[in-house]
Amino acid sequence: MSYHRGQFRDLTRRIVGEFRLGVSEPFMVNLILGTAAQESRFGFYLRQLNGPALGALQIEPGTFNWCISLPECPASVADHLAAECEWDLKLSIQVAVVVYMERIGKPLPTEADNIDLLASCWKAHWNTVKGKGTVEEFKTNYRKYVLGGKNA
Asked: What structural domains does the chain harbor?
């Protein structure tokens, strides 16, 4: 079983909104939803089966520790431990926003509904070239979990 699509989107919107990203906010929301769709099948997996990644966004402890070392990282995130990402959805979303903002740089994209752009951003800045996931797999999972099977 995975997260309810509408509730997860609403929660993600509210948390991303705290970062005041302006016109890039819808893009970041969709990028995080797509990341959850790809990484955990929208919350089905809370721990990586054969690895250290945790939570709906499959955040690795090394990524978490790097994130909290950044000056842009909110104190509300830095006061936590990586292990909490397994169960703290708000923390995981906050970490993902900081990671993506740092890795993508400014200005952030604004094309919120461009699945190709979302997939390429995920691959380049989350999964990386060394990761096993593919852009096509991301797009498939995005359509299934974020759009509910609708074509984009």
From this structure: 5-146 (1.10.530)
